[in-house]
Amino acid sequence: MGWKAAEKLIRHWKMLRGDNVMVIRGKDKGETGLIKRVIRSQNRVIVEGKNLVKKHIKQGEGHTGGIFSIEAPLHVSNVQVVDPVTGKPCKVGYKYLEDGTKVRMCSVLDLTVYFQSCSWPKGYTD
């Protein structure tokens, strides 16, 4: 079974590389880590040190073979962004401030917390 593209791609991503996320399903449930890579064509993310699988590598020129642990991608629905203030997983939304700047926010009940740093990828449009 090889690589397969997602049937319904997420159009507006709310998780970016470098976000602190919590795994909410799977063998690493409840653990947090940083997003290392976002794979938009598959609706998946790679989280540092989570969802480790064994990879058998053949010996070749310039490298030794063996069994290595690598990070496998997780589906985006299995992770949630962690609120920087409370440390709990939350849903992320967008909001425009009075001066017209777009910020990411975490809404929990009536409390709205803005993320301190919001680095948009180059050429990102909503």
Please provide a written account of the structure:
Belongs to the universal ribosomal protein uL24 family. Residues 14-41 form the KOW domain. One of its GO terms (biological process) is translation. This is KOW domain-containing protein. With 126 residues, this protein is an all-beta fold. It has a single domain (20-114), classed as SH3 type barrels, CATH 2.30.30. It contains no helices and ten strands. The strands form two sheets. It has an eight-stranded antiparallel β-sheet with strand order 6-3-2-1-7-8-9-10, with no helix packed on it. A two-stranded antiparallel ribbon has the order 4-5. Strand 4 and strand 5 (66-71) form a beta hairpin. The two termini are 34 Å apart.
CATH architecture: Roll
Q: Mean pLDDT, rounded to whole units?
A: 83
- Kindly provide the name of the CATH class: Mainly Beta
Domain count: 1
Counting H and I runs of at least 4 residues, what is the number of helices? 0
Order of the strands making up the biggest sheet: 6-3-2-1-7-8-9-10
CATH topology: SH3 type barrels
Topology (SSEs and partners):
Layout: E1 20-23, E2 32-39, E3 44-47, E4 52-57, E5 66-71, E6 74-75, E7 79-82, E8 89-96, E9 102-108, E10 111-114
